[in-house]
Amino acid sequence: MIRNAGGEPPAIPPVVPREPVPEEVLRKIREVEIRARILADELLLGTYRAVFKGSGLDFEEVREYEPGDDVRSIDWNVTARMGVPYIKKFREERALNVYLVVDVSASSWFGTVRQSKRELAADVGALLAVAALRNYDRVSLLLFSDGIDDFIPPRMGRDHVLHLIRQLLYAEPRRARTDLGEAVHFLGNIAKKRSVVFVVSDLLDSGFEEPLRTLAQKHDVIALVPGDPRELELPPVGVISLEDAETGELVEIDTSDRRLRAAYAEASEERRLERRRALSRMGIDSVELFTDRPYVPTLIGLFRTRAHRL
């Protein structure tokens, strides 16, 4: 883990030589990649491409002016040298840098239905990585908890995406709290070109608002918030023990108490509303993704809303 000390820009974690991958791990990685590829091709890619366009124009060449060309493209220096009009020709700089900033703190282990929030985040990250690959974008992965757990710089290629999927699935779990501010500060120091940043985190943290707002002023930041239905309301199942995954603190509650369940649901809803308002004030689009329901329709809805707005 890399910590930022003394106000110095955080260092990039050292590259660790890759060890041979066990066959069962390879099977799981390929399974996730195939599922992500199918979803990207059939459902997501059209909306992804419509929303995330190239970051500008690159000069390609000059050529002789032809009737119908835009006179504003005339290169007057070349025209003066050649004695006949020449225009500048540009091409769109298609490739984007896409950063997946994924929370792997202890709270991401939580899950009471089909999968944990960590597994949901891995599926979502794999889908976005494959969509970026299909769109010829460079994709990067930053895993964080109470510091920077891993960073893989932006690159293209299927092998690179498979490595990202492996880290999403198998990064070592630790009992650590969430420090989004540290991750945002790290990314702000290394991402110089305007990029697309997907923050995949339950945002169970405080003090990250200002650095995240600063990051969103330079980059296109989107928050994807994994959640579980038991975080919204408690079932009436009697006395249960709840553990704070990030501190280990245990507390016993009686879920047969209707008032307690109502207070829990009310507090949960207030947290959701405040989080949504805070992200909106920062100009950050956000959606909630839940472990008990498909996430692709939610992503498509988000991208279509953005495309319509653009």
Provide a short characterization of the protein structure.
With 310 residues, the chain is an alpha/beta fold.
Secondary structural class: alpha/beta
Number of helices in the DSSP assignment: 8
Q: In order across it, which strands form the biggest sheet? A: 5-4-3-6-7-10
- Helix percent reads 40-55%
Gyration radius (Cα, Å) is: 23 Å
The arrangement of helices and strands along the chain is HEHEEHEEHHEHEEEHEH
Average pLDDT taken over every residue: 85
- Tell me what portion of residues adopts beta-strand conformation: 15-25%
Number of structural units classed as domains: 2
According to CATH, the homologous superfamily of the largest domain is von Willebrand factor, type A domain
Question: Your description of this structure?
Answer:
- There is one protein chain.
- The chain is of the alpha/beta class.
- It folds into 2 domains: 23-50 and 94-309, Rossmann fold (3-Layer(aba) Sandwich), CATH 3.40.50.410; 57-93, no CATH class.
- Helix content is 41%, strand content 22%.
- The strands form 3 sheets. Strands 5-4-3-6-7-10 form a 6-stranded mixed sheet, sandwiched between helices. A two-stranded antiparallel ribbon has the order 1-2.
- Helix 1 (23-51) crosses helix 4 (158-170).
- Residues 1-7 and 12-17 have low confidence and may be disordered.
What secondary-structure arrangement, pairings included, does this model have?
Blueprint: H1 23-51, E1 56-64, H2 76-82, E2 86-93, E3 97-103, H3 117-134, E4 138-144, E5 148-155, H4 158-170, H5 180-190, E6 196-200, H6 209-218, E7 220-227, E8 239-243, E9 250-254, H7 258-281, E10 285-290, H8 296-309
Parallel strand pairs: 3-4, 3-6, 6-7, 7-10
Antiparallel strand pairs: 1-2, 4-5, 8-9
Helix pairs in contact: 1-3, 1-4, 1-8, 3-4, 5-6
